[in-house]
Design brief:
The complex is a heterodimer of chains A (294) and B (335). By secondary structure, chain A is mainly alpha-helical. Chain A has eleven helices and no strands. In chain A, helix 10 runs antiparallel to helix 11. In chain B, strand 9 and strand 10 form a beta hairpin. Classes of the chains: A mainly alpha (294), B alpha/beta (335).
Chain lengths: 294, 335
């Protein structure tokens, strides 16, 4: 029998041993739908080079400004005649990794801060939380813009900036959960078995944090996508000619009067992606919340 | 192994807690010993220092607490001088502890068998599979039916009594020579209490594990313990063999506790007897005897001078009134 209960145990309502994934899918339809949607997005990003009908960078002045549903160009083409569908598909390869890295930065940074703060308490808690408060004092996007402005534009810096903005959310969440867990006797009980603080934190506390953290991950991934698009729209993220959704909206905004789809199509891609992540986070929260579980 | 006089020996232990309101002398000059195979009861109300005494032994005091004075010797080794690493070697191997609330003393995200095997993985470096196999044996030992199936269940699928059994199994997995049970039955209902106490007694007799049983229930002490310590305001106020203490308590607090046990043959129209007043404010303790404000026998000396813990008849007691041989029962009847 496997004893790597981490994610499986966290995702499955622990009603019976080894609930098949299928049953879970049946009882939590919203989770299933949104998970499939998110999985599809990742699949698209992975398969973009194969499924994209055209080279996203290939210009063809003869075919510029084609409206959607034109032959050979399902979503139309832009001012340089580049195929919009291909650019959207390739754009997923920019947005999703950025979101992934940003979430990782936020999770690791915020997780460590929150764990230290909650577990150690005292003066460490006080100082770390004031630091987090300082980060929280700025609106997220403004802070991200400020960080990129300081580090210089580019995708790598955008990832860092968005990740830093995500840190306070994770830090506060982890700290609150750890404070709550510390009250439970199993913490002292585990110490009384001779477990080191490291073993207690890694082996016994972190598995208890997984449910709420999974929810936070999918919600902050949605934010990260949006933030990346915003930064790229402002010219602080992906640089020309990288096919990037935010940047495509920026370009498209100049043609809103005659060729609005140039902005609408990437906008729809962003909306759909953010919606998928938010729906996943939301439905997971409901599914994993024992109070809402019937 | 070197020879030692007692399995566990506490000598003038003082444990202080730094709170915002001031320093709490949670444990104040406590000395006692436990011999191999013995069962010692520690009785007292909430805040009397009994749990803090246990946590001082385990080296698991809260952050704001520390043993500021005294010696704690286990098998001849001075525990207060050990490093955290060395304490981790002792905890869970030679000294185990079980806790009051079985609802929260197991980790909710792990199967019970995995948890019960944790000390074996920590100290015996067992693999997961072997530790769970061992957990099945431990489940059987502590009387959990269908052990093979139950090790795969999560804590929330266990009743309170079953969880406490699992905790006991976890504590015993490494065959410790000392088991500290901090109010193991307080959160359980009465029939389950009896089962758990039976189990502890059996294990004590079979394995020869010395047990410190912390409780506020004198009935539990009477049925379980060879010797008993009564604590009040961080001090030992009475200490002796259980039958001596119960037959003729030499401290008014013990006397009042024993008198406040409801009796089935009492006149049903008489009100239940409680101890007047409330426990003292641990930050601002009164001078003199700490029980004096609530004591029906108090004399003028009690308010100013704190009595020593000295031999009174067969036991030790900390009381001016009984030191000259006065019997509390007679004093109560006469006065």
């Amino acid at each position: 029998m496997s004893n790597a209960p981490a994610v499986v145990a966290a995702l499955q309502p622990i009603r019976r041993i080894r609930i098949p994934l299928l049953e879970l899918a049946r009882t939590h339809r919203r989770v299933t739908v949104s998970a499939v949607l998110v999985a599809l997005l990742f699949l698209v990003a992975l398969a973009a080079p194969v499924i994209a009908p055209h080279d996203p960078l290939a210009t063809s002045p003869d075919n510029s400004y084609l409206p959607p549903l034109s032959p050979g160009h399902l979503l139309g083409s832009d001012e340089l005649g580049r195929d919009l569908l291909s650019r959207i598909l390739w754009g997923a390869r920019v947005s999703l990794p950025v979101a992934f890295v940003a979430v990782a930065v936020g999770l690791v940074g915020g997780g460590i801060v929150g764990m230290l703060s909650g577990y150690a308490g005292g003066i460490a808690d006080l100082l770390l939380m004031r630091l987090i408060d300082a980060l929280l004092a700025f609106p997220g996007l403004i802070l991200a813009i400020a960080i990129v402005a300081a580090l210089g534009p580019g995708l790598r810096n955008a990832m860092i900036a968005i990740g830093v903005v995500a840190i306070p959310g994770y830090a506060r969440l982890v700290r609150a959960l750890v404070l709550q867990l510390k009250q439970m006797e199993f913490v002292t009980a585990t110490r009384s078995l001779g477990a080191t603080p490291m073993r207690l934190i890694l082996g016994h506390l972190i598995p208890n944090l997984l449910n709420p953290i999974i929810v936070q991950i999918s919600l902050s991934a949605g934010f990260a996508i949006l933030a990346e698009a915003t930064l790229s729209f402002l010219g602080l993220g992906a640089q020309v000619p990288t096919p990037d959704w935010g940047q495509m909206i920026n370009t498209g905004s100049g043609f809103l009067d005659n060729d609005p789809w140039l902005a609408i199509v990437p906008g729809a891609a962003i909306s759909l992606t953010v919606y998928a992540f938010n729906l996943l986070g939301d439905s997971l929260r409901d599914a994993l919340d024992p109070r809402l579980r019937s | 192994m070197t020879s030692f006089a007692h399995l566990l020996e506490l000598e003038d232990v003082h444990t202080h807690l730094q709170l915002k309101q001031g320093v709490v002398q949670a444990v104040n000059g406590v000395s006692f010993s436990v011999d191999a195979g013995e069962t010692l009861g520690i009785v007292g109300e909430s805040g009397s220092g009994k749990s803090m005494t246990a946590l001082s032994i385990m080296g698991l005091l809260p952050r704001r607490g520390a043993v500021v004075k005294g010696r704690i010797r286990f098998k001849g080794r001075e525990l207060t001088a050990l490093s955290e690493d060395e304490m981790e070697q002792i905890r869970g191997t030679d000294v185990a502890m079980i806790f009051q609330d079985p609802m929260t003393s197991l980790n909710p995200v792990y199967r019970t068998g995995w948890q019960v095997g944790e000390p074996l993985r920590i100290h015996r470096h067992m693999k997961t599979r072997a530790s769970i196999a061992a957990a099945i044996g431990l489940f059987k030992k502590v009387g959990i039916p269908e052990a093979e199936k139950r090790v795969r269940e999560y804590p929330h699928m266990f009743s309170g009594g079953m969880r406490q059994r699992a905790m006991i199994g976890m504590g015993l997995s490494t065959s410790p020579s000392l088991l500290i049970a901090d109010e193991p039955t307080t959160a359980l209902d009465v029939t389950i209490q009896a089962q758990i106490l039976d189990l502890l007694r059996t294990l004590n007799q079979e394995a020869g594990t010395a047990t410190i049983l912390i409780t506020h229930n004198l009935g539990v002490v009477a049925g379980m313990c060879d010797r008993v310590i009564v604590m009040y305001a961080g001090r030992i106020v009475e200490q002796g063999r259980t039958e001596d203490v119960f037959a003729h308590p030499e401290h008014p607090y013990t006397w009042s506790l024993l008198r406040s046990i409801p009796r089935i043959d009492a006149d049903e129209h008489l009100p239940l007897r409680a101890i007047e007043g409330s426990p003292p404010d641990m930050v601002r303790l009164p001078p003199g005897c700490k029980f004096q404000p609530r004591c029906p026998f108090a004399i003028s000396r009690c308010a100013t001078e704190e009595p020593e813990l000295i031999t009174v008849r067969e036991q030790l007691a900390r009381c001016w009134v009984t030191q000259d041989g006065t019997s509390l029962d007679q004093a109560a009847a006469g006065g």
